[in-house]
TrEMBL record:
<keyword id="KW-0238">DNA-binding</keyword>
<dbReference type="InterPro" id="IPR047112">
    <property type="entry name" value="RecG/Mfd"/>
</dbReference>
<keyword id="KW-0378">Hydrolase</keyword>
<dbReference type="InterPro" id="IPR027417">
    <property type="entry name" value="P-loop_NTPase"/>
</dbReference>
<keyword id="KW-0234">DNA repair</keyword>
<keyword id="KW-0067">ATP-binding</keyword>
<dbReference type="InterPro" id="IPR001650">
    <property type="entry name" value="Helicase_C-like"/>
</dbReference>
<keyword id="KW-0547">Nucleotide-binding</keyword>
<feature type="domain" description="Helicase ATP-binding">
    <location>
        <begin position="284"/>
        <end position="445"/>
    </location>
</feature>
<dbReference type="InterPro" id="IPR012340">
    <property type="entry name" value="NA-bd_OB-fold"/>
</dbReference>
<dbReference type="Pfam" id="PF19833">
    <property type="entry name" value="RecG_dom3_C"/>
</dbReference>
<dbReference type="GO" id="GO:0016787">
    <property type="term" value="F:hydrolase activity"/>
</dbReference>
<feature type="domain" description="Helicase C-terminal">
    <location>
        <begin position="464"/>
        <end position="623"/>
    </location>
</feature>
<dbReference type="InterPro" id="IPR014001">
    <property type="entry name" value="Helicase_ATP-bd"/>
</dbReference>
<dbReference type="GO" id="GO:0003678">
    <property type="term" value="F:DNA helicase activity"/>
</dbReference>
<protein>
    <submittedName>
        <fullName>ATP-dependent DNA helicase RecG</fullName>
        <ecNumber>3.6.4.12</ecNumber>
    </submittedName>
</protein>
<keyword id="KW-0227">DNA damage</keyword>
Amino acid sequence: MRPSLLDPLFASASALPGVGPKTGKLLDRLLGDADRPARALDLLLHIPFSCIDRRNRPKIAEAPIGAVSTLKVRVAEHRPPRAKGPYRVLTEDETGDLTLVFFRANSGWIEKALPLGETRWVSGLVELYDAYRQIVHPDRILDEAGLAALPPVEPVYGLTEGLFPRVMAKAAAGALDRLPPLPEWQDGKLSRAMGWESFGASLARLHRPQTPQDIAPEGKFFTRLAFDELLSHQLGLRLVRARMQVLRGRPQKSDGALAARILGQLPFDLTGDQKKAVAEISADLASDKRMLRLLQGDVGSGKTVVALLAMAHVVEAGRQAALMAPTEILARQHFATIAPLARAANLSVALMTGRDKASERRATLEALASGALDIVVGTHALVQDDVAFARLGLAVIDEQHRFGVHQRLALGDKGEAVDVLAMTATPIPRTLALAFFGDMDLSTLREKPPGRQPIDTRAVNVERIDEVVAGLARALRAGARVYWVCPLVEGSEDSDLAAAQDRAEDLRKFFGAEVGLVHGQMKGRDKDAAMEDFSRGATRILVATTVIEVGVNVPEATIMVIEHAERFGLAQLHQLRGRVGRGDRKSSCILLYAGPLGETAKARLEILRETEDGFRIAEEDLRLRGEGDVLGAKQSGAPGFKIARLDLHADLLRAARDEAEKMLASDPELTSERGQSLRLLLYIFERDQALKLLRAG
Ligand code: ADP
Ligand code: MG
């Protein structure tokens, strides 16, 4: 149970003073989750990313162009709009003139705010227009009393459409007022050495900065919070790990006969990295330690075979294995790969998803419970309450970052001493692997299976789309299959969908019934049918939103077109491109972009053209964008950080790791006074799942 001391932080943001129902909804959209509204805590941890310094108070003639200034002016003349133009107010001081410009403004309001002949303070971005200084829509128009109340440095928050800065600032201030005094959870010596203030004082300063340096990510207020977050994360990981170790494993012995039979079926040899991974996993399985291993390998690196060999090992040792994938499409695909190989080796395999007929599901449940079934492949349907295994020995979790901690552990909890193999196709740079996976053991497939042809990658301006379509026509005549990916339109799944539908319509004008469409809002069965048509070659151009991102395998597809490539992150582009180049034919990837491109977008497309090495791409991504986006944190439900930035705070991460280790060594149950305080920290950063393990253990 969460200590009641923290209750005010977990109250919904709409309950804060000054937050009405409309603002409440906007805050939910910005800071809430699908299953919960925004809370006061979310507002507090939504740190301003920038600030406006209103302390610059120059004379008009000295106001720097292109910067925000706060100026004392006399209102000299009102010029209401003639016909359509803006409303202009001419102002002056002893050094020069400044025009205030208002578009579509209410003239009554302007006359009242800027009375003729009076003196006012105006604050905003000073620009030069036709050699005259002007401010378009001043941020502030104040009299002397108003100026006295103006915060010298104003925080700037990430917003969502319809949510105005001042409303946001007010809500954040309301949340700050609710923050109760909390006991200190950081070590006093460390805090003193770093010059840190308390959690509350640091938050307060970030939301009410006195100088722009106050909110710098390298500054003491920010680093204090970043360290809090990193420490909570490290503690969470270590508590999970500790439980895995307490729950002893069971040696699963195999002489590799089954695996050898499967290997004999394969039309290829394992790569060196695959062999190494299989050996590492077999050693874990055979030992009496519990396995908690992450198999990381780029798209197409051949993780599925490795997983299958691990499962064969476990079956040979007399137990069952389960593979859980995040989507229906992926589960079906794994099943299609695994079933024939496993059956040829006399293993029984079934598929279980949320869409099974009741009779099918019953039969599978019975076979799992009786032990008749060796291997089951499925979606999170596998962790439902009525699923029971006779003797589950291995849980394989594909695309593990798409599951919550809870779901990940739940599959392992369906048996005794279950070994866990997690897989991810998102290459994690080494600097991040430590943070994200803590003490998980790591096997890496870096080497690609042989015979892969490099993917010819080009960036093409969307103005040349006609040439691209003509090129597709030629390729289709030669038998090619094509993915055409439409981008996420910001903030709206509907317009996202519309874009894909429009594109499919366009392409049908040229290619008729050869064009298929798959998007995230389709029913599961329709989605599978569309994928299936493409996979059989009934359709040969598949227009898709990013639903095809993960794992889909159609080796005949050789062309990938990505529309508005500039809107995708580097890692995502890499994943998408990985859908082609899976067979032995030459593949290409066309990155259609709408110019002009910014520096970062240009660099991203350039890196993609240069390399297909997912690890290198991940490092570059980190360098270009900072840690937050590497895993597409929000989209994929990855264990992202709200505050800490690993491109800047790598040292803090190491320190947090040491601190967590030291703390748990002396107080493994977090029962001491400081341990109790650290529990609060775990709740604040939502790593409290780990606390449940303490009680359960
Ligand atoms: P991923 O790591 O993305 O899950 P898959 O396991 O789907 O990759 O493998 C991609 C493709 O490569 C599959 O068609 C698989 O049969 C093939 N493959 C796997 N290992 C090898 C290998 N050692 N040599 C040749 N092809 C391989
Ligand atoms: Mg895969």
